[in-house]
Amino acid sequence: MSSRKLRTLVLIAIAAAVAVVFVLPLVWMLSTSLKNDFEALSGKMNFIPKKPILDNYIDGIKGELMNVPIMRWITNSLSVGAVGTAIVLFIDSLAAYALARLRDLPLRRTLLSMFIASLMIPGVLTFLPMYMEFNAFGLINTYPALVLPYTAGAFGVFLLLQFFSSFPKEIEEAARIDGANKWQVYWKILMPASVSIMVTLGIFTFMGIYNDFVWPLYATTSPEMRTITGGIAMMAQGSYVQAYGKLMAMTTIATIPMLLIFLVGQRSFVKAITQSAVK
Amino acid sequence: MNTGWQSRLTSSLFVLPYLISFAAFLLFPIGYGFYISLHEFELLSDSHPFVGFAHYAEIFSPGTYLNSLFVRGLWATVQFVLYSVPLLIAIGLALALLVNALPRKIRSWFRTVYFIPYAVSASVMAVIWLMMYDTNAGLINSMLGKLGIDPIPWLTSEPWVWVALVSTTLWWTIGFNMIIFINALNQVPEDYYEAASIDGAGSWRKFASVTLPSIRPVMLFVMITSTIASFNIYAQPFLLTRGGPGDTSKVLLMNVLDQAFIRKEIGAASAMAILMAVMIMIVSVVQYRLTYGRKEE
């Protein structure tokens, strides 16, 4: 009994020590964001700032922090993420419905294997030609360039396909006998029953778009079109590289929306990840 | 009742929106990328003369500019893969075992804490660690200073640059692997362990003869996804070391994108990108074959 308790205590101690390692950088980010640049560069380990200031945040919200429009960047990221996610949910669920339930879909097997094969394609293969494609249409540095590339991934189609395939046939057949057409079955029967899986896919997709970094960095060129990840990357490369107090205020602002979504939707998110590994 | 062709048509309409996106932003770019790689394709020029496989030939000819760019980038990438992947698997599994060994009530709390960095974007991750690793003002050197250790130039000297890049990557992404392992561990049937206990197996034996074989498919999945992710490494060196010291951490993807956007030679860069993609796909297939062997056939 007591040796068992001791074992548990030791495990908790280890787990707590590991937790410190994971959280420390984030706490340090928050702490530094409340310091002036002088204190931030002092190399002292004061987690509680000597003279905490909110100037970095106030300047950030006013758009005066390092003269960049942070709030605009956040708005860009949130809108691009929201629109991209909406499109993905809509077109992926339509396609998954047809692939899972509509047996007379022409070329069904071919489409399925094509989509499966596409999951193996590394992003580096499509990155440059996609840039040239958007460039040819004059769409670099526009919102379509920040949204459309994310709608081609087949992950969502498969996640939903697995769910739709397990949906009881009887309910659908009863509706068809009552005269419902395919759209009505999709919209009035399948969708209301799929809220939880759609939320899962939605969070997964939104996080992917909001946090993506390489594509928005190259697909935007003017300051007001940047997403928050691309914007911060530019700042970190530029002359503000050691203005840690300001930079940390910026990264904290950038992280808050994602952290909230992550903590609230964690269960859904975990489900999407484990689903992807089950196949 | 719909006639056959009408029903087939309406069924097709459901797939059409996704198919358009799939064709425009996946299928077409693959073909177009190959086309570009066969041409002298300069970003700012209007004429794109056909050069056949000249770019590929150059990449494979020792002594040429493209060859050294590709080989040196590949070496940096391979080093990162070799250092990071074993740790991504081992520590991911270790964390999963640790979380699962904790009392039920606090399990999900620790799981969440270990997973939090995953919610942070690449650039935020980089900026935080840029500050942590700062030679003079960084938190890590300050803490080492208390222990009487001289400041270490984490991002500007070997081998520390690799230690820094790998640690950062572990901090940022290990939660993902841990989650997958936790899920796999929970699916190992309880009676396997009971049977092993009856046979007198200790916890190490149970781990080696029950746990490991049971999670083998998931292990493979984690190995492949971690290898692919590490092969694609870009944000960490791009933002933390800018490829330094010298070109030590200038990874392949950095060289591909520099060739495209700094030297503006999209044709040559596309050839490099295609070869890189082919290598990634070959590595995944080889890993799959090695793990599953001939049993599948």
Note down, in words, how this protein is organized:
The complex is a heterodimer of chains A (279) and B (297). With 279 residues, chain A is an all-alpha fold. Chain A has helices spanning 2-33, 37-40, 55-62, 70-101, 108-118, 124-136, 143-147, 155-165, 169-177, 182-193, 195-211, 214-219, 228-237, 244-264, 266-278. The model of chain A has no long low-confidence stretch (mean pLDDT 89). Chain B has a single domain (63-296), classed as MetI-like fold (Orthogonal Bundle), CATH 1.10.3720.10. Chain B is 73% helix and 0% strand. Chain B is built from 13 helices and no strands. In chain B, helix 3 packs antiparallel against helix 4 (104-115) and helix 10 runs antiparallel to helix 13. The longest helix of chain B is centred in the first third of the chain and has 37 residues, at 65-101. Chain B starts with a helix and ends in a 5-residue tail after the last helix. The mean pLDDT of chain B is 91. Chains A and B meet through helix 1, helix 4, helix 5, helix 6 and helix 11 of A and helix 1, helix 3, helix 4, helix 5 and helix 6 of B.
How are the SSEs ordered, and which strands pair?
The complex is a heterodimer of chains A (279) and B (297).
Chain A: H1 2-33, H2 37-40, H3 55-62, H4 70-101, H5 108-118, H6 124-136, H7 143-147, H8 155-165, H9 169-177, H10 182-193, H11 195-211, H12 214-219, H13 228-237, H14 244-264, H15 266-278
Helix pairs in contact in A: 1-14, 4-8, 4-11, 8-11, 9-10, 11-15, 13-14
Chain B: H1 4-37, H2 54-60, H3 65-101, H4 104-115, H5 122-133, H6 139-146, H7 160-186, H8 190-198, H9 203-214, H10 216-231, H11 235-241, H12 252-261, H13 266-292
Helix pairs in contact in B: 1-13, 2-3, 3-4, 3-7, 3-10, 3-12, 5-11, 7-10, 7-11, 10-13, 12-13
